[in-house]
Records
---
Amino acid sequence: MDVLIAFLVIVMVYIYGIVYYFYKRSKKRQKKKSDLMIRAITYFRRKNFDQAKYYFEIAYNESLESEDMYVAAESLYYLTFIYDKNGHNPMAREILQEALEYYQQLNEVEGIKKAQDLMAKISQ
């Protein structure tokens, strides 16, 4: 009986270790995406569009891997501004359309509104 209890305790500790490992891993991943978005927005506000584009693209790719559609939508939204500034209007519209689809899947009313407003501005 004591052996069974000892075995169950070892199994529970092992399971706890696995759960804790994946919990920490997911937190690191979320922090990494957050750091990427902060860097990207900082460069964007400083009008360093090349660096901003680089970090937005990385954040977008990271968000696709972890299926974080909100970060993907936000990355695409800001990438639209960059492509529009550089005169790539067809590419900007295409990227914004994808961002709008993500916002709609999330039912993000504010995101849908800002994407539609930007779409109207770019189309003019």
---
Amino acid sequence: MRLFKKMWIFNWIYPLLIGTILVLGFLNNAWFEIICAVCAALFWLIQLRLTILLKKGKDIQNKQCKPIGFFMLPPSAGIIAVGVLLIFWPFSVMPVPMTYGTVGISVVLFACLLIQMIILTKDVSLAGRFLRMTLGAAMSVPLSIALTLILYMAKTDEAVTLSCMSVGIFGAAALLISVNIAMVSLCEYKSTRDSIKTISALIKHRKLVFTRITILKDAFLVVSKTSISVISLSFFMFANALYSAGMGVARFYAVRMHNQDRAQQVKSYRFVGIIISSASICYVIYSVRLFGGGKTKPYSMYIALVIALYTFVEFGINICDAFRLRKSKALEAKALRAISLSSTLLCFVLTQTAIMSFASECNNSFANALAGVMFGGLAALVGLYIIVDSFFQKKVSAP
């Protein structure tokens, strides 16, 4: 009961601080402070719910803590989104006294969250465990506000970039905590390590289901790259979108191999190789034109950073797919590994082109063309290997 009273006191101080930041944001048309305050309010509602559950029994906590991790996803994603918006929207600077006041309120808010975490240190209940993690995720809000306002008050040239990166990191940390809570809830409240083991075992047994989900990832890549190509008016980016579309078709044929007999699998395996080779050769031909005087459209620093971040994420996904299938000798797995490898090779070209477009003021067409030909050629060789191997597999399977 004493613990509950202490937590309840902070749960009334918390909305007063959030409300003050929200009012100051509205008075000064400061969109950054408004969005952060809304995210903080969502975190507070979750904290309030968990504080109430501290008084409940174990069975009720087990039942009602299930959706907590999913409730935390929107405010966590909101912090990441507001960090990205700092690149594209002009930051509304409040008057100096109000700015200092907002920073001070953020510091007090952070202190309140920290004190609550310390108070809950010895609480071993499920609600107490989740509440500590929720408080940790909620710290992303005051940290984002305080650091961003300080950077803009300092009027440094790197204020936008540093603010975007810092807020993005804070939001990503909050998102990881949210995913951790959701994962633990789905795994019957095991520890994080045991939950990861459970999920890994599930993926191994449901490998086909998760492989089919990756087709949706390819569709998302195509839409995203096409959108960036339209925004930046870049045919180079559109060429990468077409390549991703080809890899999506290849992955579709690879997944279909699961329910086919051996002869059909070999044909689908060969077709995957043909798609990879054809798409890669087309990419090489497109890159060769850059040697003849063609140019890749330069990107602004912000667009280039978005592309680089995007391709690093794609690179990580492809590596994870290849690692997950590394021990399988099935034709389906070999086809999927080839698709992941080919996609990874082209990620290097896109990342290099995006970064060099703003890092160097020189004409980088030759370097971009060389990278496109080299990595596209390697991807074409991967497809050629699949085609050759398919004839070998046909001989092996022949009676």
---
Amino acid sequence: MSDAHELPFYLLFGSLMAILLAGVFFMQLTKQREFEVEAQAQALADDLARTCFSTLPGQQPTLNLPSRIAGSSYELEVDENRSTFIIRITGGTGTGESYWGMANVELRVENASFAPGEKIYFMRSGDAVLISASPIEAPPENILPTPSGEPPEFYYFARENQREATALIAAYFDVSQDIDAYEWENSDSILVRAGSILLRVRGYENGENVGLVDSAWVISNVENYAGELTSATPSPSVENAWQSGWLYSPSQALSYLRSRTWRRTSDNSIVTIPSDALVRAAAATTNVSTYPTWRVEWENYVIHYQTGPWWYAENTPGFVFQSEPELEALV
């Protein structure tokens, strides 16, 4: 008789235990799903940042975005100001949660229509990385103009009077006015007249090797001069050489160099030339001759680049590019 009375109690107890166990199992499953969403969302944010940071010039890597994150829907946002990828859970487990991945490099978004299940594209551009939901068109190389016809008088003058030409080039791009005349003040100082403006251009000897450049006379300063030119020599037109494409400005030279992709030959690492690199006129001496150049410097790098093109009809080699450490253009 007692067993019959106790049977309902056992049934009720069993039902309660089953409900309790189901609840525990559900909570455990929910917690496990939350862990999966958190792990997968954070891993995606980190993968995006890692892919972005490791993108090299000349490459366009892609990353496939998953359709869902552990069964939950999501959206991707790129915060350009913080160089950060943000994964936001929009539906399912973890709704409202956000996960972040910092790229440690400047980001610029070209196409922000990021969609789960689609690709995201990366391309390095200078110091930044472009991010896009569609393929990125590679920027054209900044080709310097190729002049036609025979070079102007200043071209021939610079070929034979390298230091004088270097000083005149530095003075012209300092005041943006054509040079009339010049005279040596001492071994490291040239006086220049540009219309009503008188200038002193100072240079110094630099004996460090830069590739095949054995030494260089580098312009250190261009300043106003209050005296007179007592024995001035007329100068060929620097402005004519520049306007006809036979002379590059310092900004043209730097822009061109920055448009190329450079590899350091010692370890194959990619080198980016910064926009604030120091550009100075110099007369660079090799085992062949001395040439006016633009000397580009940043950190531990030095580049000597031609101040203008070499005429194709010349029967002697001209100067183009030398660097230390040795750099090689890839694209």
